[in-house]
Structure formats: C-alpha cells, structure tokens
Amino acid sequence: MDHLTQLEQQSIFIFREAYHYFTKIAMPWSMGKDSNVLIWLARKAFYGKIPFPLLHIDTTFEFPEMYQFRDWAKEYHSIDLIVRVNEDAIARGVNYDTHDPVTVTHELKTVALQQAITEHKWQALITGIRRDEDSTRAKERYFSPRNADFEWDYKDQPPEFWNQFTSRVGPGEHIRVQPLLDWTELDIWLYIRRENIPIPGLYFSREGKRFRSLGCWPITHPVPSKARTVDDIIEELRHTKTSERAGRAQDHHERNAMQKLRAKGFM
Amino acid sequence: MPATLTKEPPAAYAATSGSPAFFPREHTHSISGPVLTQTTPAREKDRFYIVVVGHVDHGKSTFVGRLLHDTDSLPHGKIEQVKKACAAENMDFEYAFLLDALLEEQEQNITIDTTRILFNTGKRDYAIIDAPGHREFLKNMVTGAASASAAFLLIDSREGVQDQSRRHALLLSLLGVKQLIVLVNKMDLSDYSEERFNGIVTEYTAFLSTLGLQPNHFIPITARHGENIANRGDNMPWWQGPTVIEALDSFTNTAALDDKPLRLPLQDVYRWDARRIFAGRIESGRIKPGDKIVFSPGNKAATVKTIENWNGPLLESAGTGESVGITLAEQIFVERGAVASPAENIPYITQTISARIFWLGREPLRQQRTYKIRLTTQETSCIITRIERVIDSATLESISSAEGHTLQINRHEVADITIRTHKPIVFDSHDNISPLGRFVITDNQQIAGGGILLVNDADGQKNDSHLHPTTGKVDRRARESRNGHPGAVIWLTGLSGSGKSTIAAELERQLFDLGRQVYWIDGDNLRLGLNSDLGFSEEDRQENIRRAGEIARHFADAGTILIISLISPSLASRNSVRDRVDRGRFIEVFVNAPLDVCALRDPKGLYAKAKTGEIQNFTGISAPYEIPTTPELELRTDQLSVGDCVAKILDRVNAITRTGDDWVSI
Fold this sequence. Notes:
The structure holds 2 protein chains of 2 kinds.
Chain A: H1 3-21, E1 25-28, H2 33-45, E2 54-57, H3 64-76, E3 81-84, H4 87-91, H5 101-120, E4 124-126, E5 143-146, E6 174-177, H6 185-195, E7 209-210, E8 223-224, H7 230-239, H8 249-252, H9 257-263
Parallel strand pairs in A: 1-2, 1-4, 2-3, 4-6
Antiparallel strand pairs in A: 5-6, 7-8
Helix pairs in contact in A: 1-2, 6-7
Chain B: H1 24-32, E1 47-54, H2 60-70, H3 78-88, H4 103-108, E2 116-120, E3 125-130, H5 138-145, E4 150-156, H6 163-175, E5 179-185, H7 194-209, E6 217-220, H8 244-249, E7 264-270, E8 277-281, E9 292-296, E10 300-307, E11 323-328, E12 339-342, E13 348-359, E14 365-366, E15 370-375, E16 378-391, E17 408-409, E18 414-427, E19 438-443, E20 446-453, H9 476-483, E21 488-493, H10 500-513, E22 518-522, H11 523-528, H12 538-557, E23 561-565, H13 571-580, E24 586-592, H14 595-601, H15 606-612, E25 633-636, H16 642-654, E26 656-659, E27 662-665
Parallel strand pairs in B: 1-3, 1-4, 4-5, 5-6, 21-23, 21-24, 22-23, 24-25
Antiparallel strand pairs in B: 2-3, 7-8, 7-12, 8-11, 9-10, 9-12, 10-11, 13-18, 13-20, 14-17, 15-16, 15-19, 16-18, 19-20, 26-27
C-alpha cells in the first residue's frame, strides 16, 4: 500500500470510530484545502453520505471567492451546513482595524465555535489540523479531549495507541477528532491531485502570488509563487523551506501566539 | 496591528467572474494545459516510523536534532531562529531545542510529547516519533512507540545501562517493536573508549535476550558532534560497523500480515440506502467478492457480495490495512465487534485471558475490580480475577512473591494478570496476528493500560507460567498398543430429537461387542452432574461445551473411544474442541433431521414447551443452531435407519488405522 493510501485508510478508520463513539458530532469546515480533503474522506468513509452537519465559523472577513466556493460546494457535496457568526462581537465592533489579530481571531473564531458547541451540545468535532503545521499541533492526538472551558491540557493527555481512543466526554467537554494529524502539506496536495478534490482557486498563482494557507483576508497574505497548477504546487513544496503558515499574521503577532490561541480553544 | 487596512480584499483576489473552476484538474486544463503526472514518485511510497527512547538525559532530543541537521532536513533558518531564541534567553544552543518547541519544554529541558519529525536519507522517508524518557511521561512514550516499526535506544556511555534503559526495552517488547538499534551516546565523554563501548554491549545484550529482543546493531556515537550519525568523524577509527544512517536504511518495513488469514473486525453497519454496508478495517489477510466468511463470536456464515467504493468502481479485492465496507449475499445480523474470518481458519475465542500488561492509569489497577477491555473493535466489561505477579521492569523479576500476593498494579508497572470477560473475546496470538493479540484496558472510557495475550499458537492454550503439563510413565501409544485400537472422540451434534442418543446407545453397544474400549457421555447427564452450575446463556453454553471437550480429550488420550452426544449448537465451540483433540481422532457427526421432524418426534416434550415460551433459548426455536461446515459424517436420520447410521460411524472409526508408529485417519 502506498503512503497516500495508508494515510487515507487510517483517516477513514478514524472517521468511523468517531461516528461510532459520538452521537452528537460536527465537522468545522473552513473551505480551505485541508477541510475539503476532510469532506472527501468523510464521503469515502460513509459511502457518499456525510452523516453529520458541517460548521462554517464565518468571521465575515472571508475572501469573496471563499463564499462563492462555499455555496457551490454545499450543493455539490449535499452538505448539511450550519453557519455561525459571533454577532455579539461584530456588534461590539471587533475587527482588524480596531483590535490585534490574536484578539480578533479568538473572538470571531474560537468564541463563535464555543457558542456553536454550547448550542448544539456537540460531543466531538472533526478537525483538519496536521502535526506539521505548527509545533503545538504536533502534540495532538487523534482524539484530543477539551475540557468544559475548551482548554487543552497538552501536558497531561491520555495515552493513545493500537488505534484505541479516548471516548470519555464529561458535561460541557468535547473531543477533537483529527483524522489528518499524520498528513503533511505535501500529502494534502498529492491527495488533491490523485482524487481531483474541489478546492478554491485562491491557492493558485495570480500575478506572481498565491495563497498557501487561507484565513481572514486582512491578515492573510499571499506568497510569491508561479504555481498555477496542482503539479506546480507539489513541485514548489518539494523545494520550499518556508513554513506553511508564514502568511498568517495572527501566528506571528507575538511570541507563542499560536500556543496561546490554541490553549484557549483555537484549532 | 497592520499600519493600513483596506475595507475590501485586494482586487486580484476578489471573486473571479464566470463559473468557479473548483476542480484542480479543470483548473489545470484551463490555465496551463494537461500536465498531470500520473505516477507518484517513489519516495512517497514508503514511510518508515521510528521511535527514540532511553533514560532521561541520555541524549535523545540532541540525537534527533543532529539527525535532522546531518540529513539536511531542517526548515530554512530554523537553526538560526533557535540560536537567536537561545541568545535572547541567555542559554547555550542545544540541538535538542530544535524539537523542544514549546516554551515550557525548554524551561524544563524535557520533551513533553511524541512528535513526528520527518527526514529523508536519500533512500526513503522517515518519521521520527521523539519519545521522551522522563518517567512521568511514559504514556506518551507508549503512544509514540506503539506505532513505530523500529526503535533507537540511547545509552549514555558514562552512565551505562540505567533503569529506564531496561524499562523502555521491556515496553518495546510489549509493544511489539522488534527492530532495534542501541546507540551508545556521548562517547566523547568516555574518551571514545572501545572497551567502555564493548562493556555496555555485553551487559545490555544479556538483559535484552531475556525479553526476546536482539538488537540489530549497537553503534557508538556522539550526538552533539554528529559522530557516526551520517558521518564517521576521526575519533573512533576502531569502529568498523555501520553509521546510524547506514543501519537505518538496512531495515525493512514489517507488513507481512497480508499473507495471514483474514481478520476483519466490524466497526459499524451503515444503512443509508438499500445497501447494508459492513464497515471495518482489515487487520490481516485479504478479501474479495465470493469469499465465504464466518463472523466470530456466534459463527454466522456469509458470502461477500461486494466491496463497496465511493466515487469509483466496486473493488475487486482489498488487503491488510484497508478500511473497507462490504455487502453480504445473505441477510445476517452482526454488529460492531464481530470478527470476519475464513470458515476454515477462525480466531480463538475465550472469556478467560492471561495477559502481560503495562498500567498507565492514575488509579492503580485493582484485583476484583471491573474495567472494560477493547480488542480491535470488540469491547466488553471484564473483571481482573487475579494479579499473578507484578514484574520489576528494571530487573524483570517478580516483585510480589516475597511479601505475598499483590492486589493492585500501580502506574507504570508491568504485570501478568488473569481477566474474566463478560462477553466472549475473539483473538489470535500476538506472535501470529499482532492486532488481534493485544488489547487495552479502559477505566471510565480512557485508556489506562495495554497488554498482550499470553497464548501459544502451537496448542491454542493459555501459556500460564504457573501451570506445566505433567506426563506420566504410561503414554498414549502404550495404551493404544495394549487396546489394539486408537483413542478417539465421536462427537454427535444436532437438534434435540434428531436421534443423537438413540444412535449413541447403539454405537456404544456395538463397539463394546467388538472389544473396543468405549464410553458414552450424554449431554443431559453432563448437565445433571459436572455442569449443573451452568445455565443456557450463550456464555454458559460455551463453557458447557468446553468442559465436555476437555473430558472427551482426556478419554481419547486414555486410549478410549468416547462417544459424546450434545446439541452443541456453536460452530466455534465445536471447532475449539476439534483443535484440542489430536488430528484425525475427532469425528464430528452431524445428526441431521429437519426441524419439523425433530419437533414432531419431541421425545422429551421440549419443543412443545419451547413453543409456548416455557423453555427459553431452545435450540432451533429460540436459539440458533449452526450447521457444521466440515463434519466427518452427516447422517440424515429422517432417511436412514439407526442400524445404517451406526454402520456408517463404525466404518469411519475403523478408518483410523495404524501406520508405522501411529494411528492416522484415512
């Protein structure tokens, strides 16, 4: 079995375990490449049907092309979509003109996510994070518990081996299920190529630049690139020595920004 | 905060007009023509997972940092970044800091969790699971090491073999990691002494051999200076063995499970549409449409109709490691936890487990307390019936014998225990099909321990360290020689009223008249005596058959022809008896009469009671009878006379003939 198939088959196994263990479950969907790979894997795992809702945390700062993609993909994949906006924060005027990116990210993403979890009483969220994205994400498990305050106790995580996972969820707690944990950015693109998975066009080069990672437009910057096809991107990644999230301002706002964001519940 | 912010995204990234080209391939075509490469480069095909373990401060993180550096696998500017951070904190740069990305780790100077770090030697891709050695973090090490194909075990050349060097080796053996390289590190601090190196090799080799571990290599290194990692350096000219990279590249990925018999534990059954899709991952073997499979426990037979697929054609076959969904030709009820296997090679089934476990729970594991165990997708509650012994993981000696029996296992201890499960557990030996030979113990749905089953494939019995088969001075051959015939078990199975007892009585008489040593045991008689403590639940029925089988085996061993008449509805139970009796001496006779014929005969008036519900779990009415798949004989008692039936069995018994020194069935 080749490496990509190995990753795919393991991810499918994790999807099925999550669906078995948790009756109230949802999958956040950022519309980015990783979360579109997740949709693809879910449809493979469950033979076309995605047996749980998808959640779009809408910061209201998405690129217009992302909204366009969302509407198209919702129909294409027959997605049961829940869209969530932290209206309260928007009403208070939280935005990138007035607040720093760490605060805005926390308010518009993490708090909105918390509101959705509280309202829908989800026991588990299937996320698209990968170990190679960030050193704090490297510490994750396939099934990572979050306490009632959405905190992640990365220093004292339950063990996980032989494909047996923590399935305990106390009141208010939830489990982050992370089927892509072992994938790398390159794996994602190789798989997108192999399976021809729909993704937004922003990843491809225009005017000498492309987005390698997508977030809110005011704090997400394109990187110099001539990669106009998936093949080009794969070739580019084989030689790159810059990090994937280099264009994501909130990670670099202050020292250990990502760690602080994640300790408070960010994905 | 950015200096200026526009209210709208940059124009170049605003919505494009027309229909969105969301499919990458369409995108490819529309912009630069079809330049798709269909073949994936070889280096993506194989990724090798390794784990690094060893005593705290013996240099694991430094070694990994150096390995990355020497194979040019670090992201651009990473070293400079860490060096800068070190300068800011007024610390000397360490290669270990490359990995200790979290601030807390750097403060404590120990690694917190397993991380996977990728590097490439030119031969293939590797993923290092950097398992920390600090005792507190043992569960993280287990988490990492359990998925590794090979391990590096580091030993500080000055300190030599320490507690954790031994403890980690024990865990590697428990986790099934067989490929091992021992690195004797910090050679610079031992003046690059060959003698020192050889001393550690001798001492550690002796210890590892008691665990059944044979390291593939011992290599002297200095991680800090990169000696004998990718390059040799000048300080150890006496070292003629491989460098770390050379040794690593010589390993093979262990994936021989594809050639083993099929084991497909069910994860779930999906019924979104007209299909009933049985989903699960193949743990060993292969499957294809048309295959006859049996689900254990319960022995429900079925035929694979399709292997489903989404967004592509149905699969023609699937192998180990694939997460499949199959449909079946027959309508049968099976659920999560059932294990599909070929009918001719089913796994073991038991409710009593002997196991060696490691305990990671916050609370000690206590004897007589109830936990749950999970083995593949099987899950059942269980009780720890006995803690046999707690093993000192540093010396491998039993630490409980001196002060009497231990009633609990503390965190990080290793022990041999006996477990009684509530539901039957399907398993294989760990040596043969490892995923079916290991399990975890959960406490409140959290994984608190893991273990491997102690079974021996040769005889399928538990390999209990306290019990040893004893043999006398008269062996079976001597008895059979005196009797003039072999011992054997004639097992009559069939519905109540099918004619088992009638046939058995006549058969016993005729064999006796022929001068054979013969005895008949009837199922009802067993239940009135030896098995009077058992009821008719699935569990009790299995135990009933197990005991009957053990008695039958002893009779056969004593040179007697034992006739046993028992409904024995479970295929697995009968097969496990067959496995316990010597080859060729087990004659399974399927006494077959249609249910309505049996019900009409109803010699004991039981069918009438079963139909009114007065008797529950009655085979054929309210409990299943699993038809023998490979009986030595099938007798249609609605068509044959008692005499004909007996004659057929006698022929079969006489076909067990002496050839050379032993009796064989022909």
